[in-house]
Specification:
261 residues, Spore Coat Polysaccharide Biosynthesis Protein SpsA, Chain A, 8-stranded mixed beta sheet, two-stranded antiparallel sheet, 10 strands
């Protein structure tokens, strides 16, 4: 993936970078050093949709980059985590102080001005050493106390569709993703096809969410587009042996279609 890094598509900080921005174009959703959107080569429709979203939010071409998703035909969860590993490694190699990572089926449920206002408020009031700000999420368990009525501490929130990471947290997140990758490889050896698993990255990061300065934007301003469907789950996923293990053993309830990539 390092072949995708070039001087023309990496924004370098020649001045002290601030997530809070110094002018109108560097606030709200535009507050971050870089934007990576994960997109399968087989989904040009989704690429157009996520690029339109970034255009609507005013994210310049020099700050954003398409990251070709890793395709794993028999284990989409494995392809998902490998794609996110590539994204965090790329942000680290680029020297970005923070990065916004998006999957190509993410969409905002609020208007651009509302999104910008919400994120500007969050960044003004969150501690400067926040670890992750999760925008896209589902099945969330959040702390009751709100930060400026726009964000809450996260205990567990699924979906890796849109989240920002601070640079000091890259390595911890990579460690968690690498463990998810290892466990998903073991799942792949057990089943011909993996639909249900307790080791998907947004299940695996639960412990990290509970122990870190991980915040979720709440009330929600975005989500995975339900109209896009899922590239991981099949229509009758509940009947697959990898899903039957959930019903036959005392395991957490499996992820439903649309809760991952």
């Amino acid at each position: 993936f390092f072949s995708y890094i070039s001087p023309t598509n990496i924004m370098s900080c020649t001045r002290p970078c601030s997530i809070r921005g110094s002018n109108l174009t560097d606030t709200g959703f535009n507050s971050f050093d870089g934007y990576l959107y994960i997109n399968l080569d087989s989904r040009p429709d989704r690429r157009k949709a996520i690029e339109r979203l970034l255009d609507d939010m005013g994210v310049s071409g020099e700050k954003r980059m398409r990251l070709p998703a890793v395709a794993e035909a028999q284990n989409g969860h494995l392809g998902c985590v490998r794609s996110h590993i590539k994204a965090v490694k790329l942000a680290k190699a680029a020297g970005w102080q923070n990065v916004m990572i998006l999957e190509d089926d993410f969409k905002f449920s609020k208007s651009p001005p509302e999104v910008d206002s919400t994120l500007s408020t969050a960044l003004r009031h969150l501690p400067p050493d926040w670890d992750v700000i999760q925008i896209g999420y589902s099945s969330a368990r959040l702390e009751p106390e709100s930060v400026a009525a726009v964000a809450r501490r996260t205990r567990h929130a699924m979906s890796s569709s849109a989240y920002a990471v601070n640079a000091h947290f890259y390595d911890r997140l990579l460690s968690e993703f690498t463990e998810s990758e290892r466990l998903l490889e073991l799942d792949g050896a057990r089943f011909d096809h993996v639909y249900c698993t307790p080791f998907a990255l947004d299940q695996q990061w639960k412990g990290l969410q509970e122990s870190s300065k991980w915040y979720t934007i709440s009330p929600a301003i975005g989500m995975q587009d339900p109209a896009q469907g899922s590239d991981i789950m099949a229509q009758f996923w509940q009947l697959h042996p990898s899903c039957q293990q959930w019903w036959d053993r005392e395991l957490p309830q499996p992820k439903p279609p649309g809760s991952g990539s």
